[in-house]
Amino acid sequence: MGITVRTILHQYKQVVLTIFVLIVLSDIVFFKTESDVMLFVTLASYVGCILYYKLSSAATFRLSLLVLGVMSVAFIATGTSVITERAAVWLFFLILTGIVQQIKE
Amino acid sequence: MRLSRLLRFLPVFIACILFVIPFFWLAPGEMDLGGDSSRLYFYDPLTYLKTHLLHGVILSGVGGSTLSYFAIPYVLMLAGFRILFSPTIVIAISQGMKLSIAFLSGYLIVKELLFHDDKLFSQAMIELSSIVAGLFYIFSPIIVNSGWDRAILTHTQVFIYPLMFYLMLRYLTTNARGYLLFMLLLSYVFSINFSFFAAPGFFAFFPLSLLYLFLYVRFIRRKQIPYKGVLIGLGLFLLIQSFHIVPHILGLFVSGEFAGVFSEESIIVRGMDYFLGIAPNIKVSAGFFNLAQMRKITVISWLSVIFPLLFIGGLLVKKPGKPKLLYLTVLFFLVVLFFETANITSVGFTAYKYFFYVPGFKMFRNFFAQWSMVFVFYYMIAVGLSLPWVLGAVRRSLRFVIVGLMVTSLGLSAYPLLSGKMVNDIHYQTKNVKQNIRMDPVFERVVAAVRSLPVDGKILSLPLVGPGYQLFAGLGGEGVYMGPSLFSYLAARNDFTGFDGMAPYGQIFLNAVLRKQWDMVKRLFSLLNIKYVFYNPDPEIYEENFPKFPYDFVMKYLPKTQKEYQAFMPNLPIDEQHPMTVDRFSFFPTESDAYLPHLFTGTNAIYTNYPDLFAFNQQLNPNIKDVILPVYEIEQAESNVILEAEPVNPFAKFKENAHFHKHAPFLSVAMSDLQYPFVVIKEKLDLLRAKRSHRRYFDLSFLFLTKRIFELDRWGDAMPILRKPQAAPRLKHVFNPLRYNTWEAALARYEEQAGWVMQWILDSNPSEAFIEIDTLKAKEQFDQHRKRLLSKLKGSHLKEKDVSYLRILVEAMFGRIYQRLNAKIYDMSFSYYKLKVPPKQAGEYEVLLQFENTPASAHLPYQLTIGDQTVTGSSTEAENVVGKLQDTVTLKGGAAPLVVRSKPISLLSETSWINSGSASTKESVHTLSLTNVSNDYIDGLVREIPGWQGDRQYMITFEYDTHGEYFLYRLFDKQLVDEETGQIRTNVFFEKNLRSQGWKIQQSLVSANELSRSAYLQFLIESNNTSASLDLRNLSVVRIDNPHVFLRKTTYGTLSAFKSPKILFRKINPTKYQIDVSGATDPYILVFLEAFDKHWQLVDSAKEEMSIAAKTLRFLGRIYGALGMWLGAKYTPSDEITASYFDGSVAEGKHIYSFLDPRNFSSWGNAAVATRDHYPAYGYANAWRMKPSFVDNKTDYTLYLEMSNQKNFYLFFTLSTIVLLFIIGWMIFLLVRRKYATRH
Questions:
Q1: What pLDDT, in 10s, does the model give residues B315-358?
Q2: Cα angle for residues B203, B207, B212 (degrees, 5° grid)
Q3: I want to staple B1177 with a disulfide (CB 3.0 to 4.6 A). Which of B64, B213, B340, B1183 is the partner?
């Protein structure tokens, strides 16, 4: 009975998802790049998580809510800055993902 | 229960309040007229309708065809209101209607959508959510900022589109045809919102909305779509709108504009370029927060956070049986958000750019504005649908907080609109000049006077503005109207209020005024058919009140004050002694010899390749009645051909002195800094990325080269000097920062980068001419860098021996760079051209040279080379102004390069050296002995440049020998800042270092702007010596005036003169003229001084066509004629002559302005003549080459000149009216049947 990647992923679901959330937040707050690669790779990973962990649309909408929180704080603090804009783009894709999930549900 | 009942009445109450609020926006009698739509339809809708809407021509500037029929029903409705109310009240009704119906529509839509989920929510909840949604829509900052201030015609889309959506929703869900018919009726009244004029808004809203409704009805409500009814509705819609849609489509085909939709130029220049220009400013976050784009963010904006929170909250709420409608709506919201903001990832942005290749998508170039309304619309539905879910999921106390926050946010954003502040604004860039006015009765009299002017000529309104706006002060001098001209829109008289409208002669006029070329102005008056000059002396519309817009551009050329205008007026070709005055306003008639009537005949045509410019060439074209036609459109060989060679001027690219541009790089990291390697890597990457664009790489390279020089300037004193050669550091040395931090390394890096850019110039330019341009730019940049480095060394704290060593190093490096650059020294004797000869016009041509500022004799001798032919000349004609070469050349069809050699004239010949120091001349060498030490602007020897003019280019050339000393050479120009006070500002054009051992050549190209009045050269000592001498020879300042080269057929002017017929013309309306021709025995040219348009056609009054279509048209024409007579439009023949010209050969009869005059229809079905001989004359007007055979060799006959598209309007307006009556009849039938069914 060896430890496989699958069991690790299962055991550490919360950690994986937390890391994912941190990556999203870092991309918004720290990287300040306009690169699509980071966004789409992270998003694809998230879609992978949705499929693997069978995450509900509510989880995606909760994450959207978090991003909206970051976007709102950034907006109040910095106006329509790079951070706010990056958060807005993330919000767009997360809501879109959530709706697609919801329609499938 | 009570709350529910209260909420049911609340929307009606709110709608009433919203309707009433605009009645408090304007003071009694006040009107917010002006703006792009003029809004004169509020002031006098019937006149506006008659003059502007019923006829498909532009009644301003040089005219042309346009279609404004779509506004007829709406303006008719306003005319109905105007019978009962004042313009102020009608404006308030219009605004109130927009506010209240938009709110009600939003409310009804959300209520209808939520009502389906009746079991899920209480009635009160549905009512509350719908009310909040309606308020959200109308008070959204995006809608509030959507142009309520002097709203344009299409602004009614704010309520019409949501209302149509609601009616469609009701029709699709109930299948009740009443909704469909009401929708059609509404679409007719507000045709403007369904026209090509409103295409962006229409296509943004309807395709998506139809899809949304289809998905909703079919998959959420699970109902059948009434396809039959939808198709009938669509058919009726097209028929009822045909009165504006069909003439527009047919017009596009005739004018060839349809092909333009697919052209690359149209897609890129008119579409994508504009899109790319504004896209970086558009923010996705502003979209989410429901904020207007490109507006200031205030504390109030922070409250907007509630809206995205609300609909995400709505999405989060999970309840069994929750319908998918909210998800569908948010999906549509996201789609519209993408179209509204474009900036959703680089991939999304790139995809958006590709949409512009879809024919017609370029209408969305101003995308954020055009998608804004539909964006708010879907946002409203999303908010309305989310609200009950969120409110149902939170505690009661929190509900009040949420609704309270929303209402507060909306209330605060709506305040500027509701308080009327938004429509009581001041004009942009003015000193608090109010936009709103009360009409001055005196100006009403002015408009009435314009209406009664007997001659069919145009008006030039002064003071002239930039765009085609008219300005006049309101009653008591309060407020100023700024918008399309009242003379055009209410008096049906073409006038020139802005230089824009004077196309294609606008710039010619301004330049002529600046250069005081009054003969040019006189000819312009003739060619533009200007009969009157209207002068408005009010200070309120000029001077201090309007320091910038709309005068900022034209003020560079025209008088800056009303006082100056009064002094300027006598220069115009007007009869100042006999003005027509209305109070303080004056109309000056044009001098009789400066006026060309609207229609006239000529017998002589001149065919040339630049008709618009040649029309002003009074030396070669002295007779104003000679009609200038475009040679490229003529399909047979002609005698009177004169071609102008096109200058291939390499200096044209330097109009803004771009080669003297001073880069200002930002320095933050010294070369000794540990971070410097990152600077190196970043620059390398930037340059690598910039290689995709020639210009970007060139500019970035010089920015970095300047950075190298600035680095030495700033940190050079502390930098090590190795005193041994050092190669430029490579990328692998980036981790050794010291490798960059020496003078030798820095200079080696500079030289290496200079080498790259010089190679780039050679490799990436498409032709030798472009290489020359970039080389010249590069040379000036290197000169700047050299100057800065040498100045740095002169003032540095380094040891003297180090300075000497570095100076040698710097000079050696620049020596190598200059050698490699090998910049060309231009011989100003040569001018280069290309000539395109139409194959049919091949033959023998004589050569004429025309110089702009000096007599042709001063440039003798001439030489011209074309292909293998070289001809010379030494004679002149036309009063010594035009140079003529002795031999002729044989031109074949096709393009050929052409070189002219003529003697350049230096402007310096009349001046001498002044200021400190002395100058002596021996054997053409000027020795300048300079004694200055202070290096000041007033020191050294100075030489004025006589004859310097603004808006010209100059080449300054000389040879110099400094005997090893350093000198500074500068060029200054003096620019006029204020004409009235004569205030002058002196500018340094450039500063250059001169140093040589032996003779060297220095050449500089400069472009003086239009304010430049004089210039001088200055030479100074740059070294620390107190005196030194400098030798100069062959010093010249040559104005770059390539002579105009004309090639004139040897048969030119040899045709025997034809006899011109007599014509008498009468205007029936702006789209139809009756022309009585008599004595037309020979061919002649009929000229109509109105913008060229293929829709203008000449129709023979007596020649009937026999096709079935023509017979049908004739039959319909008779019916329309009879109808016109029945409605009172009687035709009374009149022999009255209002004006005659050219010894009576052209006469104007009595003009009328009738929409239904029987003559409008009498030529229907008759043959159009000379359609293939219709050409643009003078670069803009209409000309027909008439031959006797076109009219069956008759000598006396009547022609009708008509705008052919107008016929389509008469026909399809009738069709639309019939369909309208049918729909009204059907509605009445449905109502009666319903009443009958209710009774029984």
A1: 988 877 777 899 999 999 999 999 999 999 888 998 998 888 88
A2: 140
A3: B1183
B702 in A contact zone (CB under 8 Å): no
Paired residues of B1069 in beta bridges? B1072
Residues of A in contact with B297 (CB under 8 A): 75, 79-80
CB burial of residue B802 (10 Å; 0-12, 13-18, 19+): middle
Element (H, E) at B641: strand B641-644
B771: tokens are 């290489």
Sign of CA pseudo-dihedral B214, B216, B218, B224 = negative
- Nearest CB among B288, B327, B347 relative to A88 is that of B288
For residue B24 the two structure tokens come to 């408090």
Closest CA to B824 of B764, B874, B869, B772: B772
B1149-1207 pLDDT, tens digit per residue, is: 999 889 999 989 999 999 999 999 999 999 999 999 999 999 999 999 999 999 998 99
Cα gap B464→B470, rounded to integer Å: 9
Residue with tokens 């041994």: B724
Q: Token digits for B1121? A: 């004629």
Strands B843-850 and B882-891: antiparallel
- Cβ within 8 Å, pair B344-A84: no
Q: What is the SS3 assignment for B534? A: strand
Name the pTM for this structure.
Answer: 0.84
Q: Is B207 exposed, middle or buried (0-12, 13-18, 19+ CB in 10 A)?
A: exposed
Q: Phi-psi category of B878—alpha, beta or left, where left has phi over 0 and alpha has psi -120 to 50? A: left
B956 strand-pairing partners: B1004, B1037
Average pLDDT rounded to a whole number, residues B510-515: 91
d(CA B235, CA B241): 10
Helix (H, G, I), strand (E, B) or coil at B923: coil
Amino acid at B184: L
Tokens of B847: 């050569």
Report the alpha-carbon distance of residue A80 to residue B1124 in Å, rounded.
62
- Please, which pLDDT band fits residue B283 given cuts at 50, 70 and 90? very high
Strands B875-877 and B882-891, bridge-based pairing: antiparallel
B681: pLDDT strictly greater than 60: yes
Nearest to B233 by CA among B291, B146, B175: B175
Q: Position of tokens 């004006």?
A: B1139
Q: Which residues pair with B133 in a beta bridge?
A: none
CA distances to B205, B339, B347, B363 from B271, rounded to whole Å, are 20, 15, 19, 7
> Based on the number of CB atoms within 10 Å of its own CB, is B665 exposed (0-12), middle (13-18) or buried (19 or more)?
middle
DSSP class of residue B429 equals: T
> Which phi and psi angles does B1213 have, rounded to 5°?
-70, -35
Alpha-carbon distances, residue B1148 vs B527, B1029, B1140 (angstroms): 18, 75, 6
Residues of A in contact with B305 (CB under 8 A): 68, 72, 75-76
| Edge-to-edge strands, sheet with B1174-1177 | B599-602, B1084-1088, B1181-1186, B1174-1177
Which residue in chain B is spatially nearest to A58 when comparing CA positions? B316
The predicted complex's ipTM stands at 0.95
Q: 3-state DSSP call for residue B91?
A: helix
- Distance between CA atoms of residues B40 and B489, nearest Å: 8
pLDDT digits (tens, 9 = 90+) for B135-166: 999 999 999 999 899 999 999 999 999 999 99
Residue B535's nearest CA partner among B466, B584, B467 is B584
Residues with Cβ < 8 Å from B64, sequence gap 6 or more?
Answer: B57, B58, B1090, B1091, B1093
For B347, nearest residue in chain A (alpha carbons)? A36
Interface contacts (A, B; CB < 8 Å): 83
Question: From the CB of residue B266, how many other CB atoms can be counted at a distance below 10 Å?
Answer: 16
d(CA B504, CA B614): 13
